Amino acid sequence: MLSDRDYYSRPPRRNPWEFSSWSGVSTLIYLNAIVFLVVALLDGHGTLTQAFALVGNKPWQLWRLVTYQFLHANFSHIFMNMYGVWLFGRMVEQALGKTRFLLLYFFSGILGGVFFLLANQGSPVYCVGASGAEFGVMVAAALAFPQAQFFLLLPPIPVRLWVLALGYCVLEVVMLNDNGSIAHIAHLGGALGGFLFMRRLMGLSRRSPFSREPGRRPSPPPPRRPPFSSRESDVSDAPIDSEELNRILDKLSRQGIDQLTPREKASLSRAAEALKHR
Q: What pLDDT shows up at residue 234?
């Protein structure tokens, strides 16, 4: 019967080691962690960092706009960046899907790198880290789910996501003249990247795809009409014979659904409906 068939009763299992089964957020966190460990263990003289970090006096080496995003100065640096990617990225990936989320991430990181190069032309100062990309993801989450609430640690109060993102961006503007080791201009460039990316997506359709709250699944699409005519589907409401059902299922497993006749598809549909209400 239908319930005895593996391909009918259980969804196919995903291989956890298969790259395509990972979410975009998981992929980014794993890659950043691997690169951080490799650099920490093998790059005692800083050779890898010098070759792949973003540096103001080598703007023509365009690969650095991507590679600098996977390098981090220390554990706290990568931890805070990946925590932000995990915190906001899950919401954004839910709204955009894996491919668009990754495009947003790298677009924000690259634009943050461009801002850094423009502000440090000819300078030997290096820039590393995914902070620009993470700021873009945070701004994108604020545009997609502005009313989502987060609890701050200090002070422990709830705050709307749009307020949180705006507060961080204002803080970066205030600290632009700080001569410390943080590239605030790259953070602002990444935030602008997230804003531009989301505004572009929102402008493509009158109906915003970001209206649902995080954690809620989108409404299921309306049921599609069966690929056979109503005249042929009105065969009979009587239960289908078990031998006939087994014959149809065997044909389905060997030849695929496209090889079933309209009458066989109608019979299979009735049997599935009867099983559902059993």
A: 43
